[in-house]
Amino acid sequence: MTGPVAIQYATRHSDNVKRMILYSTFSRFDEVMPEDTLMGLAALCRSNWQMASQTFMDMSLREIAPEASLRLTAVLRETVGADVLASTLETKIDVTELLSAVKSPTLVLHRVNDSAMPFATSQKLAALIPNARLAPLNGTSNYPALGDSQQAVDSIVAFLNQDEPKAPEPEPEAAPSGFRAVLFTDIVGHTAMTQRLGDSKAREVLREHEQITRDELKSHGGSEVKTMGDGFMASFSSATKGLECAIAIQRAFSERNESAAEPILVRVGLNAGEPIAEDDDLFGTAVIAAARIAAKADGSEILTSDTVRGILAVKGFLFADRGDVALRGFEDPMRLYEVSWRQNE
Fold first, then answer.
1. Pairing with 333, which of 11, 161, 194, 236 sits 20 to 30 Å away (CA)?
2. What's the pLDDT at 344?
3. Three-state DSSP class for residue 323
4. Distance in angstroms (rounded) separating the CA atoms of residues 129 and 277
5. What DSSP line would sit under 169-199, residue for residue?
6. How many Cβ atoms sit within 10 Å of the Cβ of residue 210?
7. Which residues contact 6 (CB under 8 A, 6 or more apart)?
8. pLDDT classification of 343: cutoffs 50, 70, 90
9. Is the pTM of this model over 0.70?
């Protein structure tokens, strides 16, 4: 919970900060848990401090380190009063607008399966802080000293020993190392269209689809990874550029369909993360999730992951919560958001 304080200090006193390390933290409190949950915990602190303090520690430690949970609960009771913790939980912390002003090289550490803090909060920090690097760690413990801590130590040592970064070349929306927004498109009803029009006519429609999509990818700095015949996989160094491109694609097809004899309805899915790049292709969970998200969209829809929504929450895009959705191959449901692209004029 001290991450936002560090970010504020780093922006207000940049001359005093050579490097910054953020571990399992956030820029907006309501990204950690819903506001009504935060208010419920605050009320519990004031009404039953014994229960609240134990609950607070149990959320992150009970299953993986019950003895440590009891010890740290005692420390919490001795060092932090109920009103202090309650007041902190009630504070609508939001330092998102400061992230772009951080000047110091920043290392963002987070265990991918952290039991208390969503990994997406650190993905957002790494995406929006200039010259930041995200180091995903193995394990579930929210506390760096519990579990396998060597990976965190190695990342920190390497970060502190690296040379000072050179001033970057002017380049819009420079991305943190490894970060990509991954976009999938897919024509709805392509097989039925081919059967209805025949191979030759259907191929003409596909060529038009390919031209429109490639034009928008080029205009928004997207990299075409591959085409699947009736759809595309593309990547962007910026989640902003990725979503702007998705909106532009839908608008282009909408305009085209107004006068076309054969409409083209495209579904779009967008996710963000650190995929594995190999042989001009991208692999990994972030890519698979993006494909599964696209599959859940209807024609002319754009669906994004909660990660993308968190990164772009203050960018002026309009998101509609579609709730937790089960995605094929993923054990836990994923919260998806529909982008109201017709209103983003």
1. 236
2. 45
3. strand
4. 22
5. PP-TTPPPTT-EEEEEEEETTHHHHHHHH-H
6. 15
7. 20, 22, 25
8. low
9. no
**Which of helix, strand or coil describes residue 280?**
coil
Q: Which residue has the tokens 């692999």?
A: 283
Instruction: Measure the CA–CA gap between 287 and 283, rounded to whole angstroms.
Output: 6
Give the helix ranges, DSSP H, for the chain: 3-12, 35-47, 49-61, 66-79, 82-90, 119-128, 150-161, 190-197, 199-219, 239-257, 285-296, 306-311
d(C-alpha 24, C-alpha 16), whole Å: 23
Query: Are the CB atoms for 22 and 133 separated by under 8 Å?
Result: no
The single-letter code of the amino acid at 321 is D
- State the DSSP string of 223-270: EEEEE-SS-EEEEES-HHHHHHHHHHHHHHHHHHHTT-SS---EEEEE
Hey, what are 111's tokens? 């265990």
Gap between the Cα atoms of 121 and 25, Å rounded: 7
